[in-house]
Amino acid sequence: MAGPQGLKHRRTTLERAEKFLSGPGFPDCNLRGRLFGDTCPLVSLSCFQTPQRIPHDEAVRQEFRPAKVGDSFGPTWWTCWFKVELSIPREWVGKEVHLLWESDGEGMVWRDAQPVQGLTKEGEKTSYILTDGLKEAEPHSLTVYVEVACNGLFGAGKGSLIAPPDPDKKFCLNKAELVVFNRDVHELLVDFEILVDMAKFLGEENQRSFQTLYVANQMVNLLDVTDSSTFPAVRHLASSILRQKNGESQHTIHAMGHCHIDSAWLWPYEESIRKCARSWVTVVRLMEKNPEFTFVCSQVQQLEWVRNWYPGLYAQIQDYAKEGRLIPVGGTWVEMDGNLPSGESMVRQFLQGQRFFQQQFGKLCSEFWLPDTFGYSAQLPQLMRGCGIRWFLTQKLSWSLVNTFPHSTFFWEGIDGSQVLTHFPPGNSYDLKGRVEEMLKTMNNNKDKGRVNHSAALFGFGDGGGGPTQKMLDRLKRMSDTDGLPRVQMSTPDRFFSMVEKEKTQLLI
Description:
Blueprint: H1 10-21, E1 36-40, E2 44-50, H2 56-59, E3 65-66, E4 72-73, E5 79-87, E6 97-103, E7 106-111, E8 114-119, E9 127-131, E10 141-149, E11 171-181, H3 183-201, H4 207-222, H5 231-242, E12 252-257, H6 269-289, E13 295-298, H7 300-309, H8 311-322, E14 326-329, H9 343-361, E15 367-370, H10 380-386, E16 391-394, E17 409-413, E18 419-423, H11 436-444, E19 454-459, H12 470-478, E20 487-490, H13 493-501
Parallel strand pairs: 12-19, 12-20, 13-14, 15-16, 16-18
Antiparallel strand pairs: 1-11, 2-3, 2-5, 4-11, 5-10, 6-9, 6-11, 7-8, 7-10, 17-18
Helix pairs in contact: 1-3, 1-4, 3-4, 3-5, 3-12, 4-5, 6-7, 6-8, 7-8
């Protein structure tokens, strides 16, 4: 009887595990190629195009023409509405069924006259869950609409991101069908990914790296992707690593869902409104399935847009805000520039912003949220404290190519002596993807980790990418307390800053 197999060559073993997970390579025999099961064509697909951004009620009354996968639509800034008629096969009872939709542009699924899901390839959102487990008594036939904006996530620049838009750009529908989603394959993929990334990014000198690589290799040996009866044993192997806990001194990362959206950048204002709706309705869907999920939402102007244009969605946002899971942050009307506006202009930002938060959500913000501004007036601490704000979170100084900012967590003192507790998320990003590499960077790059043992991590696709994904949440869940990794917990700004304040005597000014 053969004994345990050694790892003859680390790089070869690691590449074997990576190929087993890869998307483009070997889809017929690796695990990722099994994520979707049976497929079924749509009953009918039709569309109509308009240069205007019109409401759903008006759109559904228009004359639709037949459409098919491979068709192009456009030009730039137009909107194409698709009418999707579908019938789920009876033999799919008990299975999770998705509408798989891959197209250029940014999409929104409408069902029963309400927005229900954003769709963006760049935001890894290319399917809408029709049912978690099809029941015999459920309607098997239904009609949904997909509203597709004829622009990319970052506009439609001709030749480069910030070039003037190409007015004649065309967009293509690449896939539209019903699929069975294999949730057990998804869970295995996340297990594999965490272990492989631990093996890669903990480094060759780290014992834990070799432990995870050894287990990942065993998982590849044991798993038969064509036989789901092998899955439980493989997941049990993964849990032998994931269930091993950290010590008490391990660094804690406070993870918060985030979706920074520029109110004005590479697209018209009207498109900013739809970007907000597409993103936040996707967040609401995730909250329905993940009770531990928390999400921070800044910029009153964007909340006001959604309140006026999507009142049903806004009501859901208010409900989750009452639960403390969707947290309005920032205290200002928009995330404004921090250099050019006058002191009076900044005061008005806080005055109007805090008034809105008090009226709409019943409380004032305690934190100023400004991740995407490249500089800050020295009068800001004084203005913040005068407006009831004592905490500040920002990011962009860490992107400097010339000057490296020396701290992550500190007290910023203004010109009058006012102080605010300030944090720069050490991952140097406000749109992390919840990966092992990012969490390790967040811990290792914290420039004050000898003084404070907590960092914030903001995760999710921005600018219309729809914020977090289920995969991001599943990654972070597996890192909640796993030996070798920082301890990751879903958190809120209040919880994070309150923990840091307990160690304020250690912080520099």
